[in-house]
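Journal club prep, notes for RB
We'll compare a predicted complex against what the paper describes. Inputs for the zinc ion case:
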Amino acid sequence: MFNYPSLKASDVAPSSLLFIPDSSRSSSDSLYSADILHHPSNVPLIPPATQRPPAPPRLAYPTLSRHPQGAPSSTLQHVSNDRYRTPSQESARIIRDRAVDDRVPELKTVLLPRDCLPRFLSIAALNTARNRETCGLLLGRDQNGKYVVTVLLIPKQHSTSDTCTMDEEELVMQFTEERSLITLGWIHTHPSQSCFMSSVDLHTHSGFQRMLPESFAVVCAPKSTPNFGIFRLTDPPGLQTILACDAKEAFHPHPDIPIYTDADKGHVQMKDLSLEIVDLR
Ligand SMILES: [Zn+2]
Ligand SMILES: [Zn+2]
């Protein structure tokens, strides 16, 4: 695993962003490291500095973990199941009545191909059987005022039972730039845990959502019921709470307020649409 230098949003050239840049929404703090990190492990997540490959040149991809140095400390203990699903995290999720049309009015609708989740789970099945996470990016376009997910991109990655780390993200940048795609969301598995947004997931997602308010996170938990969730941070207060949180620990509780919610009962709609899958592994 290696880390990229953190970037300020203002350093990032709009043309190289995977997201729709919106400087009015960007705060001045650094973006995130390259890692998609979820659940701590007793395996050190980064090798000692002397073993790390040299940092690549500056990258514009808004990275995926909140840890500027890329990883929680190696002193974190491995945990199984929901040790980090604190009461505050659990209660932070708003469960809304499907019958209520509570689409957030200021958000554009995002159309997600209905078969995206089963196809992603199929791609992830080998990792899942080995109790390893899998992650992907949901890319698409603005079509007639709606965002439409058209590509599921599986980046090069390495994973453990509780982490998934994207590698060579310059390949992802190249792909999205060449195709003029927008990163609309991200998807990952919890191979043995339940379906929720961990504190690390919340911080990861805050980096997406502050760049594009419509960004959503899909969590697939094939061994759990429910086995998937499509989430976003509440705005307010969830997005602001997470962006302002400076907890140093990878996993930590947040205030007992509604921090995230089910986007699929809001602005994300599943439709029968075609989906291209690009696997960079
Ligand atoms: Zn997760
Ligand atoms: Zn936090």
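Talking point for the session: The pocket of zinc ion (ligand 2) is lined by residues 199, 203, 242, 245, 247, 252, 254 (CB under 6 Å).
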